Amino acid sequence: FKGGDTCEYLLSSGRFLGEKVWQPHSCMMHKYKNSEAKNCLIDKHIVFIGDSRIRQLFYSFIKLINPQVKEEGNKHGNILFEDKSASIKVDFLWYPEVNGSMRQRIKSWTEGSMAKPHIIVAGAATWSIKIHNGSNEALTQYKINITSIAPLLEKLAKSSDVYWVLQDPVYEDMLSESRKMITNEKIDAYNEAAVRILNSSSRNSKAKVKVFSVSKLIAQETIMKSADGLHLPESSRDTNAMILMNVYCNKIMKPIDGSCCQPQPPLTLIQKLAFCFFTLSIIGYLIINLINRNNYRKNKSCTDLESGEEKKPAISTPNVSTLEMLLHSFCKLGLIMTYFYLCDRANLFMKENKFYTHSSFFIPIVYILVLGVFYTENTKETKVLNREQTDEWKGWMQLVILIYHISGASTFLPVYMHIRVLVAAYLFQTGYGHFSYFWLKGDFGVYRVCQVLFRLNFLVVVLCVVMDRPYQFYYFVPLVTVWFMIIYATLAVWPQIVQKKANGNCLWHFGLLLKLICLLTCIYFLSYSQGAFEKIFSFWPLSKCFELNGNVYEWWFRWKLDRYVVFHGMLFAFIYLALQKRQMISEGKGDPLFSSRVSNVLLFISVASFLTYSIWASSCKNKTECNELHPSVSVVQILAFILIRNIPGYVRSVYSSFFAWFGKISLELFICQYHIWLAADTKGILVLIPGYPMFNVLVSTFIFVCVAHEISQITNDLAQIVVPKDNSALLKRLLCIAGFFSGLLLFSAMQDQSRH
Questions:
Q1: Which residues touch 129 (CB under 8 Å, ≥6 apart)?
Q2: 746 with 705, same domain?
Q3: Regarding predicted confidence, which is higher, 730 or 297?
Q4: pLDDT by residue (tens digit) across 117-162?
Q5: DSSP state, 377?
Q6: Which residues form the NXPE C-terminal domain (predicted)?
Q7: CATH code for the domain of 127
Q8: Could you tell me if 591 and 737 lie in one domain?
Q9: Are residues 247 and 186 part of one domain?
Q10: Same domain, 206 and 241
């Protein structure tokens, strides 16, 4: 990677994704809304100076500020635009030739008391070609004139942003007779002269006039759609205007999905401390490793010549072993976090916008489905939702979600609605799994709670520190964490009702159902009382965890979207375990779950329900309306899938080891994708190998999956050390963790204060 300013790439290179989406080379372009454009350009004066092509660009630019503007007025005269609400002035000055008149206008800004424009966009040539019938004398005069203007533009560039727009190619077959002398050969000669003179002038000055050459590339692809062969179609000039807006506004507005022209963010205090910690961990691990190797050499066993066996020295160093394991884990994690930072915070690797096509989503889906079916094995047990089956379920869902994210399929509503069901199914498993554990084991100890919370949150907490992102940014982890605590509180609060107790007296079952009804009532109340919900999560320090962009609305929206599905998972677990206890279902190998008649009826209803939901989701026209219905109806397809997967005995007895492998690291895959597979906080795609999209995806995916697997191993290793079974040791660890988070909150408050 050459490094340097991504603005140069934005202004000079790129390609079309599809017909209308422009992709700059190496960086991402933000699509500015009217409100964002106004905020960026407040109190600014912008001037477009040139011919009819510059006038087109002027109109496209002001439409980003006010879409109601109509293209009217004197075509061969000055046009003034003002947005009084934001004190923005945008002027078009009619100077169709690079001559003395244009020079005098530009000179007036460099001398005297006249206020200089903040942005100047200039360009002209086609009129010179037309008026002088494409003569060589006209080109020579153009060179003389632009040579005299260049120093003035350089002087302006010291305090303003100055852009020289190169001439777009024409579609010669469509040109009128009066314009036939305007050929692409002539245009290239004029462009070459302008670039050479402007670059020569910039070498002698620190300021630099930015050459806007990307419009040539855009025109080459779209000029055939021109109405007259000379002027660009509206979509192309709108793209040019959006590029201009990105060049100027990205460094001011800092949009997440606008990586072009954005400087690398400075390291925060917390990031610097994290860097020091990981560096010390790496150094500490290397020192201990060297000491252990030295000890190993000293105590190296001698080979027993008679038996041919080695006599191993009996060295027992449990404390060193634990410390070494801890430092080894942090050493690996430090290297991995460095890769995270380089991918998504440093301007080292390229990033590109997503672009959805049906083939980019559905072809990989078919591919992984074939792979998953190919790796089919027998399950160790044949119970409903056994461990292998739930891992398989999580695995294929995670792979589909990953493909959904990288292909940008959220723009296609039917796919979006089906992915919402997959997210709901994860939460359904949360309700089912945790309820089953507490109901069967009756283990409400602190150790269990700490283990679950650590495994869920460890990676996210580290990323919050290293990547400088709020906890709520990784919304799924806060969601499953809060739901786990709700499940725990519901079942742990007096009276604690577990299966062992309920077997002695059936009334306890009604007591548990009463608890579940109370939970459902609370969920219903909070979902329709946004104010109460926000008050609960706006209290400090909860607000530090659940606020995003200064409020908890995003958290409320995420929670509300799947508010009932965890309850559905708990209720399903209760009914299933009750039926299992009373031996009302058959879970033998190869046996259908119920009698043949009941199984066939349930299977038919399940298939019909599954397809009905898919038809409804595919016919969705409005995302808001469908999201309102989703919490109540998503369980239909989830239950239908469970019954289809488990009623036939032969289906229940097999699983895909391919999907199950991914299922075991599904949480790490979901979180890691934010920064090392996607880019710009999921808004774009990471580009490690530019120019080869398929090869790039293969390489970045391989690294991404390996990293996710390694982080899963690190989390498991650290969980054994950080969350010990011994209660007194666990209490000490909890006090240390409380101290860590207190320090984190303190440093976070200091950072916020320094930013303000």
A1: 138, 181, 182, 186, 187, 190
A2: no
A3: 730
A4: 999 999 999 999 999 999 999 999 999 999 999 999 999 999 999 9
A5: E
A6: 22-92
A7: 3.40.50.1110
A8: no
A9: yes
A10: yes
Q: Which CA distances in Å does 258 have to 39, 248, 352?
A: 16, 11, 10
First to last CA, the chain: 35
Q: CA 272 to CA 279: how far, in whole Å?
A: 11
Distance, CA of 527 to CA of 540 (rounded, Å):
22
- Burial (Cβ within 10 Å: 0-12, 13-18, ≥19) of residue 752: exposed
Query: Which of 87, 101, 228, 595 is the catalytic position?
Result: 228
DSSP string of 526-550, one letter each residue: HHT-HHHHHHHHTSTTHHHHH-BTT
Tally of domains in the chain: 3
Residue 301 backbone phi and psi in degrees, to 5: -75, 150
Choosing from 12, 13, 52, 614, the catalytic residue is 52
Q: What pTM does this model have?
A: 0.91
Same domain? For 696 and 740 the reply is no
Per-residue pLDDT band at 750 (split at 50, 70, 90)? confident
Active site residue 657: no
Q: Is 52 a catalytic residue?
A: yes
Specify whether 476 is located in the same domain as 618. yes
- Do 230 and 179 form a contact (C-beta atoms < 8 A)? yes
Give residue 317's pLDDT band: very low, low, confident or very high (50, 70, 90).
very low
Residue 197 sits at φ, ψ, to 5 deg, of -70, -45
Q: Which helix (H) or strand (E) holds 371?
A: helix 358-374
Q: What Cα–Cα distance (Å) separates residue 675 from each residue in 3, 277, 351, 402, 706? A: 20, 21, 11, 13, 14
Residues found in the chain: 756
Q: Report DSSP state, residue 551.
A: B
3-class secondary-structure state, position 675: helix
In a domain, 349, yes or no: no
Bridge-based pairing state of the strands 350-353 and 684-687: antiparallel
Does residue 292 fall inside a structural domain? no
CA dihedral of residues 534, 540, 546, 552 (deg, nearest 10): 30
| Domain shared by 119 and 188, yes or no | yes
Quick one: DSSP state of residue 92? Answer: E
At 480-493, the pLDDT tens digits run: 999 999 999 999 99
CA distances from 607 to 385, 636, 644 (A): 18, 11, 7
Instruction: Choose, from 231, 405, 568, 630, the residue flagged as catalytic.
Output: 231
**Which of 646, 655, 516, 614 minimizes the C-alpha distance to 574?**
516
Q: 436 and 711 in contact (C-beta within 8 Å)?
A: no
Q: Is 681 known to be catalytic? A: no
Distance separating alpha carbons of residues 263 and 256, to the nearest angstrom: 12
Cis peptide, bond prior to residue 495, ω within 30 of zero? yes
Radius of gyration of the chain (CA): 32
Q: Which spans in 116-233 are helix H?
A: 126-131, 136-156, 184-203, 214-222
pLDDT over threshold 70, residue 314: no
- Give pLDDT tens digits for 390-415: 999 999 999 999 999 999 999 999 99
pLDDT at 699 over 90: yes
Is residue 711 one of the residues assigned to a domain?
yes
Classified as helix, coil or strand, 405 is: helix
Question: Residue 179, class by beta-carbon neighbours within 10 Å (0-12 exposed, 13-18 middle, 19+ buried)?
Answer: middle
Q: Rounded CA gap, 366 and 394, in Å? A: 17
For residues 693 and 746, state if they share a domain: no
pLDDT digits (tens, 9 = 90+) for 217-229: 999 999 999 999 9
Domain with 43, as residue range(s), is 6-253
